[in-house]
Automatic annotation (TrEMBL):
It is an enzyme of class 1 (oxidoreductase). It comes from the Eukaryota. Belongs to the gamma-BBH/TMLD family. Its cofactor is L-ascorbate; Fe(2+). SUPFAM superfamilies: Clavaminate synthase-like (SSF51197). This is Uncharacterized protein. Keywords: Carnitine biosynthesis, Dioxygenase, Iron, Metal-binding, Oxidoreductase. Pfam families: GBBH-like_N (PF06155), TauD (PF02668). The lineage of its organism: Eukaryota, Metazoa, Ecdysozoa, Arthropoda, Hexapoda. The keyword Kinase does not apply. Residues 38-107 form the Gamma-butyrobetaine hydroxylase-like N-terminal domain. GO terms for biological process: carnitine biosynthetic process. InterPro entries: AlphaKG_dependent_hydroxylases, GBBH-like_N, GBBH-like_N_sf, TauD-like_sf, TauD/TfdA-like. Pathway: Amine and polyamine biosynthesis; carnitine biosynthesis.
Amino acid sequence: MFQLQQQQHGPEEEHHFEQDSLPLILVPDESNQLGLPMQFPDIWLRDNCLCSECYLHQTRSRLPQLWQHLDTKRIRVYHLNIDQKQEILYIEWNDGHRSEYPFCWLRERDFSLANRSHYLQNFYRPEPRHWSGTEFALIQKEFLYQDLISNNDELQQWLYQLAVYGMALIKEAPLEFDVVRHLCNRVGFMRRTTYGEEFSVRAQPGASNYAYLAAPLPLHTDMPYFEYKPGVTLLHTLEQSDSPGGWNLLTDAYHVADILKQQYPEQFRILTETLVDWADIGNDNQLEFHNIWRSPVINVDADGRYVRINHSIPQRDSHFNVHPEQVRPWYEAMALFVRLAHEQAYEFKTKPGDVLTFNNLRLVHGRTGYADTEQNVRHIVGGFLDWDIVYSRWRILQRSQTADK
């Protein structure tokens, strides 16, 4: 490990290293109030050299030349110089290549645990906070439509609310068909599916999708049959049924997964490991489709974090490609998941001009049944955003806010 101690006699430090030195460089940074040095593996510094031979500034991306003859076992620092006054790290490598790194660039990429954690939680993606049905009133936040259209700070707060808590309600939107499109365009662009871009949810005779019926709509995620499932659902209420029904149901399925993991670990394991066939067969606007995707109900990443919930009773295929002995245990685990999801659901009813927005990878949603007549119509206009587009916009807005301070 390269231990770099600041010299008392001047702002510059020079260091020569033996070839067998350990490949971690500690760079002192006077701006760090805790006095902790920045940490960088030497091979990472070589890979991220910012010179014109290694990096194309107009695309902000590295060039491939190094990787055409990369020998990971031989790359080492030969000579290192730190200019504390100009805040630049200079390195000469053992193959004669020279690199320089501004401290402002290095600080953002410091390998220290504190900096890595800060990046993941405050810039990569905000840390989700799970909630129970009884906590809904504490986490729920409302935004005004016109504020989101005209104010970037409000837009940033809406996207943050969606990322952290998975839902937000927008109020006082115009009773016009293109409201969802305007909101999506403020973020980036709308996600198109087999049902088009905007879609109308209202009772339809002979409907090909269960959501277009006036019957109770059980808790579900939208479109689990897509490998790349839409990330954020937007539902704009144009007309609301005056019947006793038509109430929205929302549950944080990540919280349900927490309960299963802590109290029912075997059922949690089954729902994270058993592949389920999800399917959608039909036609819409003269487009015929047969979509299938196989994925567990609860999806986790390599670190055990939840990344996606799949659930839709009508859109779970009758094909179930597992060993027969796995079937009954899965049904028992799934019945427990459904029961807990209903126990944790919060019920409310939107009004005309409300836009309900929520994380479709995380929340399960539904509604109670309602009476549909010519005098009693419920009309919802929906659309989707992808999380890649949401996070991109959020980061841009966050950087803009930081630059203005």
